[in-house]
Specification:
- This is Ketosynthase family 3 (KS3) domain-containing protein.
- Belongs to the thiolase-like superfamily. Beta-ketoacyl-ACP synthases family.
- GO terms for molecular function: 3-oxoacyl-[acyl-carrier-protein] synthase activity.
- By secondary structure, the protein is an alpha/beta fold.
- It folds into 2 domains: 396 residues, 3-Layer(aba) Sandwich (Peroxisomal Thiolase, Chain A, domain 1); 344 residues, 3-Layer(aba) Sandwich (Peroxisomal Thiolase, Chain A, domain 1), CATH 3.40.47.
- The strands form 4 sheets. The protein has a 22-stranded mixed sheet that branches. The chain has a two-stranded antiparallel ribbon with strand order 3-4. It has a two-stranded antiparallel sheet with strand order 12-13.
- Helix 6 crosses helix 12, helix 7 crosses helix 17 and helix 16 packs across helix 19.
- The longest helix has 17 residues.
């Protein structure tokens, strides 16, 4: 069963930042929002003349951002929005020193969210290649990874604490806020900067048009004449702090982030369950986590996209929880003015919700002329004054990622309540690797000493001289029934097979997973599908692209498709942390079980080598020199369980997750690796603190770090990823090998990862004989 967080601690909100089509800065943003001003107009960011619709909520009056430590020429449009919003929030929180850097940077975490990241640069790069014109790769591609947003913010403001990026499309920054709350509750930081950013681009605009979900003129949520959403862009930033830390500072707490509810709607990838059951459950869980009831809520910032099905499902969920036309509840949709900001929507709407509470004024739902009578809601089309002590903000996404976030104006009384920590057991492992499908193929390949790297010619004939860890797709396709396979892209196929093997290994069935959680990681997302879709825009025109191809392009597609196939209605987290992506998921999944948030978590990662990824890395010079980067692909899934539950059901316990740690250098750019392993050694030693490893064999997987070699007595040391290729999955494949191979004695495994962007991760796992 999914339960609230362990300590029920509220997070103090001490800083806000916003860049939007209706204003930059909280004052301008709020003034226009209350006035019902919308930002809809003709698209100028790209040539939209060939698209089915040509209007969006574009940021036109932002003064831009002048970085102190970054090269503005290589920053994406989304980066600029994010940096501006982040500086606003950090300044309001009084967290910046005289040099513009965050004070106490090691105890400041950074969690970012985006759906498409620096995709405008990618589109420009591939358009130049398509047209055969000149381009500057560094200017266009430095921010090509979704994690680049976080890396650039960390570098600009000197943030050296916990760092990750969440990517669940339209709910991304809602999950980032929830993750920030959990990080504070777990004591992993004293404050968290949460930032979500998005820019308009052709892929998302053509994609939503292919789904016939865009209104050509206006967004009119909950109106009888509603036709669809209108896309928007911008960024939001919120500083969360421990309440005791915030109270000690000379600034005012604006509100409290008190809880969240996160579920997966398994009805359909893009259409919500019609009765709104998932939406109601998300809101109910948020109330429980916040220690509030439905009668406490004064205001709801609705997801309110303006699409017929989404608005109806949300309305039915609201009625199921609050009753028909509850007199105490005011509801409005910010998207009626801001448009749908996708990965940034949740946090910008959270800013709007906090400002609603601070100003005791509920903003309107613009363009609401004839409220749909079948929805059963009392929606005010005009702003009105009203004290708001408690509020909810909803965000629902592709893949059924539904989150509701609760805000309050005062601390709860039961903040000290906790759940005893649980042991974390690994009970199942499944892999797809360059050596083939399954754990046995991985063990045989690594133990034989034969490299899993081979020519990349089959991906793209231009790269015949390069090697990478490719998976033979023949057996993969043969292992998946055609009816299922036609709905999956390459990484989704890898993940599907890895999950099935892991569940078989753990002796679990889909029926055992209804309330389980999933933590999924990837460095490059569904790059092949994104490139395929954009190439179709270039060759066939944006009016002729196909909806299934767009659906498969979103980063959370593999995890969401698998969760819906399994009927997994619990939380699905999606993290992008480059080569540390699996490590981020392993740590998150283990913490969920220790905290009592879940009894079972599927920790997984999947990666593909696509022509687009090869083109990008080639243009950035990663394949040059004597030691070119060797990319890899595949998938890994580990079943984590509450150890007591696993023993009770007689599950095979393969290992125990004892500790995990991350160190982040704030001195590396998005495409740079740290030049030394000092931070990796710190992360590794952090996992060993308080753990008795005396007289137990210790195997270390990862780079050869001298300080570890000299300070630890090891029985074996290896770096299997050199035989598998670098990816967000490689770390998981290495750990899977260590836990499965008979050549690695029962004892301790220290798994270490060094990633671009200066991220370093280590995990300590006890292998059970």
């Amino acid at each position: 069963m999914i339960r609230p967080g362990p300590k029920y601690m509220d997070a103090a909100i001490t800083g806000l930042g916003v860049v939007s089509s209706v204003g930059t800065g909280a004052d301008a943003f709020w003034k226009n929002l209350v006035a019902g001003v919308d930002g809809f107009g003709a698209i100028t960011v790209f040539d939209a003349s060939g698209h089915r619709t040509q209007r969006a909520a574009e940021v036109k009056d932002s003064p831009g951002y002048d970085p102190l430590r970054l090269n503005k020429a290589v920053l994406s449009r989304g980066d600029i929005f994010a940096l501006d919003a982040a500086r606003q929030a950090l300044s309001q929180s009084n967290l910046l020193d005289a040099d513009g850097c965050v004070q106490d940077s090691q105890r400041t975490a950074l969690i970012c969210a985006t759906s498409a990241g620096g995709i405008l640069g990618l589109e420009t790069f591939f358009r130049h290649k398509f047209e055969g014109t000149e381009y500057d790769a560094a200017d266009l591609l430095t921010s090509f990874t979704l994690s680049a947003l976080a890396t650039n913010i960390a570098l600009e403001f000197g943030i050296a604490g916990y760092r990750t990026t969440v990517a669940t499309v339209c709910s991304s920054s809602g999950l980032a806020l929830a993750a920030g709350l959990d990080v504070l509750r777990r004591g992993q930081a004293d404050r968290v900067l949460v930032v979500g950013a998005e820019s308009l681009c052709q892929v998302t605009h053509a994609g939503f048009n292919s789904l016939r979900s865009i209104d050509p003129e206006l967004c009119r949520p909950f109106d009888a004449a509603r036709k669809g959403l209108v896309l928007g862009e911008g960024a939001g930033a919120i500083v969360l702090e421990r309440p005791d830390t915030a109270d000690a500072q000379p600034h005012r707490t604006l509100a409290y982030l008190a809880g969240y509810g996160l579920v997966t709607d398994v009805h359909h990838f893009t259409a919500p369950e019609p009765t709104g059951g998932a939406a109601a459950t998300a809101m109910r869980l948020a109330l429980g986590d916040a220690g509030r009831t439905s009668t406490d809520i004064d205001y709801l910032n609705a997801h309110g996209t303006g699409t017929p099905l989404n608005d109806a499902a949300e309305a039915h969920g609201v009625v199921a929880l609050f009753g028909p036309e509850p007199a105490h509840l005011t509801i409005s949709s910010s998207k009626s003015m801001l448009g749908h900001l996708l990965g940034a929507a949740s946090i910008v709407e959270a800013v709007a919700t906090v400002l609603t509470m601070n100003n005791s004024v509920c903003p309107p739902t613009a363009h609401l002329e004839s409220p749909a009578p079948d929805l059963g809601l009392d929606l005010a089309p005009k702003a009105h004054s009203k004290p708001v002590r408690c509020a909810l903000s909803n965000s629902f996404a592709f893949g059924g990622s539904d989150i509701s976030v609760a805000f309050t104006d005062s601390l709860r009384d039961d903040a000290s309540t906790g759940i005893p920590a649980s042991g974390v057991a690994v009970t199942g492992i499944g892999v797809v690797s360059p050596y083939g499908m399954g754990g046995e193929a991985l063990i045989h390949g690594v133990d034989s000493g034969k490299s899993g790297l081979n020519s990349l010619e089959t991906v793209d004939s231009r790269f015949v001289s390069l090697c990478g860890g490719l998976v033979d797709m023949g057996p993969v396709r043969a292992a998946i029934p055609p009816a299922r396979r036609r709905h999956l892209n390459r990484p989704a196929m890898f993940l599907h097979l890895a999950v099935r093997e892991a569940l078989d290994h753990a002796d679990l069935t889909p029926d055992d997973l209804r309330d389980a959680a999933m933590a999924f990681g990837t460095a490059y997302g569904c790059s092949g599908s994104v490139h395929h879709f954009y190439n179709a825009i270039l060759t066939d025109g944006p009016r002729n692209v196909l909806p299934p191809h767009f659906i498969l392009s979103v980063t959370n597609a593999p995890a969401a498709l698998e969760a819906q196939q399994l009927g997994l209605s619990g939380p699905v987290w999606v993290f992008v942390a480059d080569e540390c992506s699996f490590d981020a998921c392993l740590a998150w999944g283990a913490d969920m079980i220790r905290d009592g948030q879940a009894d079972t978590v599927l920790v997984a990662a999947a990666e593909e080598i696509s022509p687009a990824i090869l083109d990008i890395h080639h243009a950035l010079g990663f394949f040059d020199g004597e030691n070119p980067l060797r990319l890899g692909e595949g998938a890994v899934c580990m079943v984590l369980e509450n150890e007591d539950n696993a023993r009770e059901r007689g599950a095979p316990i393969i290992g125990r997750i004892l500790a995990a740690a991350q160190q982040a250098s704030s001195g590396c750019g998005p495409q740079e690796y740290a030049q030394d392993y000092g931070s990796l050694a710190q992360a590794a030693h952090s996992t060993l603190n308080g753990v008795d490893i005396a007289e137990k064999p210790l195997a270390i997987f990862g780079p050869d770090v001298p300080v570890l070699r000299n300070s630890l007595k090891t029985t074996s040391r290896a770096n299997p990823r050199a035989m598998l290729g670098e990816s967000g999955t490689a770390s998981g494949l290495c750990l899977a090998y260590g836990l499965l191979s008979s050549r690695i004695a029962p004892g301790m495994i220290l798994n270490c990862t060094s990633s671009r962007g200066g991220l370093m991760a280590a995990s300590l796992v006890e292998k059970i004989g």
